[in-house]
Amino acid sequence: MGDSTAPATRAARAARALDLTELHASLTDPVLDAMNFLNEVVSRFPEALSFAPGRPSEGTFATDDPARYLRTYTDHLKYELGWSEDRVRTQLFQYGRTNGIIHDLIARTLANDESIHVSPESVVVTTGCQEAMLLTLRALFARPEDTLLVSSPCYVGITGAARLLDIALCPVQEGATGPDPKAILAGVRQTRAAGGRPRALYVVPDFANPSGASMTVAAREQLLEIAAQEDLLILEDDPYGFFVREGSSRPTLKALDRERRVLHLGSFAKTAMPGARVGYVVADQEVIGPAGERTLLADQLSKIKSMTTVNTSAISQAVIGGLLIESDCRLRAANADAIAFYRTNLNTLLDELERHFPAARRRELGVDWNRPDGGFFLVVTVPFLADTKALEHSARNFGVLWTPMSDFYLDGGGSTQLRLSCSALTPEQIKDGVSRLAAFITGQASRAGR
Q: 79-98: per-residue pLDDT in tens?
């Protein structure tokens, strides 16, 4: 018999909408909506000066750099390692080793730049640092009660990844110098008291996104003692450590780690080029199997990666590999110009805020900001609600963009704070942008009765 259903009825059945409540709960997470809104505002106001993105400056990029780096890497394979043309072709054009093909160069660079001495086999090369986070979380968090401690405020990439994987989160309040080890210890014990298992802490010890805060060396050492005492792993994310404004660089947690408590997450997005999408994780912890066999955690992450991205683009790895070879695996020295640029930008931002809001004016309006020792970000406290409505008003009427800090808090907070990033602007744009921002803040403060 033929189908007697009316065409309109058949079309209605075919076009049946999906119920959002039947999709994964993370899709209704306000953080995901907030980031989409920010991107949408940026696209709607392209002429606005933007303190919103944390991307690196393009001033040091040249369009012929990737081709040169690729040639440097292939020459390295052919003339230094003695590879045949066929082997080089396979290395570049075929599916590659799941854990990556430049792991040895990354290990050498970490030893030179950070005094992190690990086997190349403990390095997993990932598609950006975001994949490193996902692989690590998926491997470590096995039980429903497993809980990830995070600084509050915290980078949304890790909290978003945790929510995608249904991992419980425990926020730890951050202070002027990053997360307080005592607060972390309290969070660990609070989690246990509530029936959870504190599995790991995620932390950006240097110039954190979004706050710009940095941990002291003493706090780092105390954190490692707590991690050993409480059987806690540490996920150390270090994208900004090179970019010191004042003082000298501090040792990474991984460089201080003597008990393999730290998994070190890294990326070449800020120190090389974000378009390559190459990151990594150092996972040198031993894993003991049911029959007593021993492997590295990196090998276990490889199993997960083989079911997600299969392997990180060999071409992208070769480009980054060529850059590392040209810099003699000393990326800190190769970033000297970038370090000076970002130092100038952050100093310019701080100077301009001070010029537009001298001490008496700050007190009058109820405006203040922190003064990070480096990195891309600082936080301004204002006497009004710094939400998406205020952001749109700022973009439309004053031509300046920023990021609401409330997006970075899990436990409420940041409602009267905004994040400024100075990495993607020139010093002249920063001066113009702060002038516009000052007019916006002053106007909003007046409306709030200040």
A: 999 999 999 999 999 999 99
